[in-house]
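Researcher: Go.
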Amino acid sequence: MNPFHGKVALVTGGAQGIGKAIAQAFSHHEVRVVIADRDEAAGKECEQWLRSKGGEATFLYCDVADADSIQSLTEQVIDRYQRLDFLVNNAGVFCFKPIDELSVVEFDEILAINLRSAFVAAKFAAPYLKQQRGAIINIASTRALMSEPNSEAYAASKGGLVALTHALAVSLSPEVRVNTISPGWIEVRDWQKRSERQEVQHSEADRTQHLVGRVGTPEDVGRAVVFLCSGESGFITGQNLVIDGGMTAKMIYED
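Model: Structure:
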């Protein structure tokens, strides 16, 4: 018997990119997937795509920068399914600006979407996740651990997610396990909605800078999410799993 059959997963930012692959990975294991996104066209397209593959998927609109929208989303999921087993806080946006150009308002907006939303979603989902002894997965980034120039808002938000993860793991134990995944370079251009999808080509330098010899794919993250939600990872909580092809393990010197 499939241990995932009939369970329910909520994936924020689930319509495109990594979120879409996470939704697909859940659907492949017979999990009923709720795709939450503010891009309605992408969300409906992803819903139809998963259903065409035999999965049970539902798109629900949500603006994760708005706490009321997240609360409404959670209520809709429970009204529809009467349960919630897995929450994946994947929604996020990039912002790379020099510090003298980055406004305080912009900084706050990035934290609201990338970090505060994960806290709010966990807050509203926690009672239902506890009932099912479920799991929360937060999608951070290797930029929580290292940085490029002009990435203060994004790095702060992702670093905050890592810290939020171990705090939630302690507070929600033992009923709910909480872990982070920090992806490195994951190629998402071919995982966008049809109108924005691009053909992907990587140079030899792109591939060889990774210890595994290739750029990451959204499926790499999707498989890890399913593992961290499964009984096989039942002794893992409060952890940050880096999925980057080994890039953060490699020392880089200027020639």
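Model: The chain has a mean pLDDT of 96.
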